[in-house]
Structures are given as structure tokens and as C-alpha cells.
């Protein structure tokens, strides 16, 4: 996808791999000045190097507000402004044995997911908008999930956090639209990343069952999520505000549901 992001200053969190990396790559290819952030320092630095000499990396745990402030202070000190931000950093339960009903759901996992996926997104939005309000412009995309749209089972912490991210996005759009700032979210469906490959797509029977509920009969690719984000950040999406763009191959339209 080609849009004009030439010279736009952008930050993508959780960009060492997967969807975040694909978003950062799309921004770089369209001319943006990109800083990527991740808790995975070695992988993050390698990704920044692979994406190009102008791509910056900063280690950041988004659940730590001080680290988030340091990230955006560094970006603004370097560039003097912030035009686009993608709050992608997030986690979910990664092992089958952790996916259980609410009565057995771990308090530790609940707090860990909410701290990163919800609190971390809030901390980033707060830091981003502090600069964007000053300059009177900017675009933010929060990466949510179809888990925040339909009640997926056995991952109550993730469902709750992502639903909250979507509502927070809408509230921010209403608050900040008059200041020249657009805020939207993207909700990916089942997308091929390292975690889903291990959890779902490494087993033929599980993979076939999962895609049977997707009208397009396949999982999404990270570049397809990146294209949706790029549209919302660019002038092509200049009148889109407070919207949750679902990118799921039709899963949540009710084709068939058992997950």
C-alpha cells in the first residue's frame, strides 16, 4: 500500500516482531521517520537495523509509565514533534494450559495482561497526546482485537483489556477531535505471528477447525493488518475518527462461531 507519510514522525510499540514490525516496515516504506519500541532489546535492535539506518530503537516496557515517558521524550527531543503513533504492544496467554474458564483464571495473568494491554496503551496515549495537543495535529491507532468485539472464551483478561481499549479509543476521539487529533483502533482477527503459529497453526486439525470459521478460509498476514493501520494514519483516512476497523477475514460477521 502506498500513501504519503514522507517526513512524518512515527512511533510503533511492540515492534520487534509480528504485527508491530510489519506496521513499522510499512511506515518506513512510505517515508516516515520511525522509532520502534519493545521490551525485547536484542530483537528490537536487530529489527531497527534491518528496517533501515534512519529507524531508531528504544527499549520500553509500556506497563512502566516512566519508561513510556522516556520513550516519547526521546522522540520529541530528536524530532521536535510526533505525527503518528501506533500502540501495538500487548500480550495474551500463550500456553494452552493458561486458557481456562474464569473460575480458574490466574490473578497473576489477569494483572499482567491488563497492565500491558490496557494500562500500557493508556500510558502511551497520554504521552502521545501531550505533544499532539501542543502542535494541534496527530493520528493515533490503538491495536485492539476481535476479542474486544466478540466474547472469545478462555481468555477473559485479554477480552476485557481489548474491549476497554476500543472504548478508550472512542472516548479519546471525542475528546481530541477538536484539537486536530484523530484516534482509531484496529482489531485483527487470527493473524499469522509466532504466538498463533505455536498455539493454533502447528497442529493441522486445530488449524483447519479455526479457519473453518473464517469466510476467507485462512488466517491474516501481518502486512494486511499493517495496511489497515497505514490507511488510518495517513491522509487517506483524514475523516475517519473514533472507528474500530476490524480486519478478520469476516470471522466476526457471524459466519460460524465456536471459538
The CATH class label is: Alpha Beta
Q: Taking strands numbered 1, 2, ... along the chain, how are they ordered across the largest sheet?
A: 3-2-1-4-5-6-7
Number of domains: 1
Rg (C-alpha, Å): 18 Å
Q: Low-confidence parts lasting 5 or more residues at pLDDT below 50?
A: none
Percentage of residues assigned to helices: 40-55%
What is the CATH superfamily label? Answer: NAD(P)-binding Rossmann-like Domain
Whole-number average pLDDT? 93
Instruction: Give a quick account of the main beta sheet: strands, pairing sense, barrel closure.
Output: 7 strands, parallel
Could you please describe the fold and organization of this structure?
The protein has 259 residues and is of the alpha/beta class. The protein has a single domain (9-191, 222-239), classed as Rossmann fold (3-Layer(aba) Sandwich), CATH 3.40.50.720. Helices cover 45% and strands 14% of the residues. The protein has helices spanning 18-29, 41-51, 65-79, 107-135, 156-176, 194-201, 204-211, 222-233; strands spanning 9-13, 33-38, 56-59, 84-87, 138-143, 181-188, 244-247. Strands 3-2-1-4-5-6-7 form a 7-stranded parallel sheet, sandwiched between helices. Strand 5, helix 5 (156-176) and strand 6 form a beta-alpha-beta unit. Helix 1 crosses helix 8. The chain starts with 8 loop residues before the first strand and ends in a 12-residue tail after the last strand. The model has no long low-confidence stretch (mean pLDDT 93).
